[in-house]
Amino acid sequence: MDRLEQYRSIIQKVLNEHAQLSQKVRSDRPDDLDSPAETIVICDEKNDNYLLVTVGWQEYKRIHSILVHLRIVNEKIHVEWNGVEYFAEDLIEQGIPESVFVPAFGDPNLSEAIATQS
Questions:
Q1: What DSSP designation does 60 have?
Q2: What are the structural domains of the chain?
Q3: Residues 35-54 pLDDT 10s
Q4: Of 15, 71, 75, 77, which one's alpha carbon is 20 to 30 angstroms from that of 111?
Q5: Contact indicator for 42, 50 with CB cutoff of 8 Å
Q6: pTM of the full predicted structure?
Q7: Measuring CA to CA, which residue among 47, 96, 90 is closest to residue 68?
Q8: Measured between alpha carbons, how far is 41 from 45 in angstroms, rounded to an integer?
Q9: In contact, 40 and 20? CB cutoff 8 Å
Q10: Could you tell me where the beta strands, DSSP code E, fall in the chain?
C-alpha cells in the first residue's frame, strides 16, 4: 500500500472509530439533551477531503457542526479543523507521522511554510 493510500485508510478508520464512540454515548443516554446529535463520517477520496460532522435536532434547535475536517494536499495532511480531543494523536498512533500534519486553521503564511518543509 502506498503512503497516500495508507493515510486515507488510517484517516477513515479513526473517523469511523470516533463516530462509533459518539453513537455509543448517544445510545447510552438517549434522553440527555447534552448527548451528541448523530455523528456521520464523510470521505471524499477523489478530492481527499475527510470530515466528521454532527447533525440533528436538540428540541427545536438545528445541530450541524463540523468536528473534524482534514485534506490531503501534496502528501501532507492539512488540518482544516479539529474539534475532537486526541484526534491527531489517534492518527499518529495508527502510523501517520506527525511531520505530515499542517495546521491549516492558523496563519496562512505559517501554514504554507510548514507545508513546504520536507
A1: T
A2: 3-116 (3.30.310.110)
A3: 658 899 999 999 999 999 99
A4: 15
A5: yes
A6: 0.84
A7: 90
A8: 12
A9: no
A10: 38-44, 49-58, 61-73, 76-82, 101-102
| Mean local confidence (pLDDT), 102-107 | 77
In angstroms, the CA 17 to CA 15 distance is 5
CB 101 within 8 A of CB 111: no
Max distance between CA atoms of the chain, in angstroms, equals: 49
Using the structure block, give the residue that is written with the C-alpha cell 473517523: 15
* Each residue's pLDDT tens digit, 55-90: 988 778 888 999 999 999 999 999 999 999 999 999
Instruction: Look up residue 105 and give its three cell numbers.
Output: 486553521
The total number of residues shown for the chain amounts to 118
